[in-house]
Protein: GNAT family N-acetyltransferase
Organism: Erysipelothrix inopinata
Amino acid sequence: MKLERVVYPMIRHATLEDLNILLDLDNDIEYSEMENIIKLERVLVYENEDKLIGWLRYNMFWDHIPFLNKLYILKPYRNKGIGLELMNYWETELRAMGHYLAMTSSLAEESAQHFYRKLEYQDAGSFVLPGENLEIIFVKQLGQV
């Protein structure tokens, strides 16, 4: 009887081995910046059957408030709870690091704004860059300050 290898979904920090695949999929970031935030452990990847199917990357607003820059799930895997799993994992990590506030943003016409609101992110303002549409800023208290 042949034993089958069972592979479970996994969330982990990206490594430099993930750099090229992330850059192939994510056109919103420069090579050197992606390399830097991977080294800072600010990129989480979601794998299933050894295939990267989603990621979350963040930086620090005002150098001390985690700001989610990108949450992306490949199209065939959307609406299956993967984004929620990544967000929960990220928020748990932030709390463990002593962060009690998280931020993100969404264009007003994007459906992501509804996702963040369901996760208890609160509208905190908005702005418009030249040639762009309205960007909504969201914040969430992660616990006691």
